[in-house]
């Protein structure tokens, strides 16, 4: 081997080692952030264990060792767990002044990698429902002020009549830093409007963090009111999910992680996050956005959004189609 070839191999080897060290450090930083933002929920009152703390990547039981027949079963079990449908509740807490804050943004996601489908809808902040902690009827966004993350998740579970696997709580003020770290977002704005000193023209517009926060907050000047605001919030969330899939995000990861660590809490473990990253991308290719129908009503001088039991049953059936559709289809084929 001549001298030039040895030099080339040494340089290439150093490059490989350097790259490996760099990505290993990134991996450890992600893991550290995941541990910092992890906050499990206590067990539900009607359950003996916390069903939200069962990562999809972890098999329910370990196969007995020493038999060849258990290996395929273990693989099938792991594959089933890695590809099972999951539900995630994303809520943004808007704190202004000294109040405890309210979950003014409530977005439900159900994703099924087998069906390659994701269901998404917003729950209007003024929706009247029973609070999980007190049993009283109130606006659904008040659940956070009364009982924090746990009350919010349990109240939404009761409203939808379905369990929620994971939650992600985002501080809306810190939300703008995450958007800036990702290089901003581009959305297709349906209506031109001005809000908090910013002008948002109709059509495709680029938003940095502060503009995105203002864009997500406005509702009084929107022809669709709270529904229009919900749509804008969903647009931003979809853009952020798309950004997370881009390879260019790796170069901004340190800053993104720092902002996430300061603004996010979740019961997703690090293993859960890895599983969602690798196995649920296909579900984002087809996002079905629903709207919860209802009507406004005044009770004791306070405005509420009333959702009928029929509408709640309809939403529940849509959720079930995504979460259990693949299993039902497979059962019908085998019958």
Automatic annotation (TrEMBL):
Polar residues compositional bias, start-end: 67-77
One Pfam entry name: LytR_cpsA_psr
Region annotated Disordered, chain positions: 39-79
Origin superkingdom: Bacteria
InterPro entries membership: LytR/CpsA/Psr_CW_biosynth (IPR050922), LytR_CpsA_psr (IPR004474)
Cell envelope-related transcriptional attenuator domain location: 102-245
Keyword tags: Membrane, Transmembrane, Transmembrane helix
Residues annotated as transmembrane: 7-27
The keyword Membrane is annotated on this UniProt entry: yes
Protein family according to the UniProt entry: Belongs to the LytR/CpsA/Psr (LCP) family.
NCBIfam families: lytR_cpsA_psr (TIGR00350)
Protein name listed in UniProt: Transcriptional attenuator, LytR family
Origin organism lineage: Bacteria, Bacillati, Bacillota, Bacilli, Bacillales
């Amino acid at each position: 081997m001549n001298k030039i070839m040895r030099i080339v191999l040494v340089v290439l080897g150093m490059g490989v080692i350097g790259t490996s060290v760099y990505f290993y450090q990134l991996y450890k930083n992600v893991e550290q952030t995941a541990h910092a933002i992890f906050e499990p929920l206590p067990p539900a009152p009607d359950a003996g264990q916390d069903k939200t703390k069962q990562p999809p990547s972890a098999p329910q039981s370990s196969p007995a060792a020493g038999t060849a027949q258990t290996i395929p079963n273990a693989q099938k079990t792991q594959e089933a767990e890695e590809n099972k449908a999951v539900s995630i509740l994303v809520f943004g807490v808007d704190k202004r002044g000294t109040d405890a804050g309210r979950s003014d943004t409530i977005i439900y996601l159900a994703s099924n990698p087998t069906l390659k489908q994701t269901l998404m809808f917003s729950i209007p902040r003024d929706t009247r429902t029973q609070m999980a902690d007190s049993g009283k009827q109130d606006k659904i966004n008040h659940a956070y002020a009364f009982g924090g993350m746990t009350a919010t998740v349990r109240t939404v579970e009761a409203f939808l009549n379905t369990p929620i696997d994971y939650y992600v709580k985002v501080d809306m003020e810190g939300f703008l830093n995450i958007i800036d770290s990702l290089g901003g977002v581009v959305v297709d704005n349906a209506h031109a409007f001005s809000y908090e000193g910013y002008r948002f023209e109709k059509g495709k517009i680029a938003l940095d963090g502060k503009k995105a926060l203002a864009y997500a907050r406005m509702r009084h000047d929107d022809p669709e009111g709270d529904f229009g605001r919900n749509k804008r919030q969903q647009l931003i969330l979809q853009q952020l999910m798309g950004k997370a899939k881009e390879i260019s995000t790796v170069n901004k990861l340190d800053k993104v992680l720092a902002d996430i660590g300061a603004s996010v809490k979740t019961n997703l473990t690090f293993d859960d996050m890895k599983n969602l990253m690798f196995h649920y991308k296909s579900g984002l290719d087809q996002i079905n956005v629903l709207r919860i129908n209802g009507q406004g009503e005044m009770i004791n001088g306070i405005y509420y959004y009333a959702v009928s039991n029929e509408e709640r049953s309809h939403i529940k059936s849509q959720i079930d189609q995504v979460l259990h559709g693949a299993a039902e289809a497979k059962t019908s084929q085998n019958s």
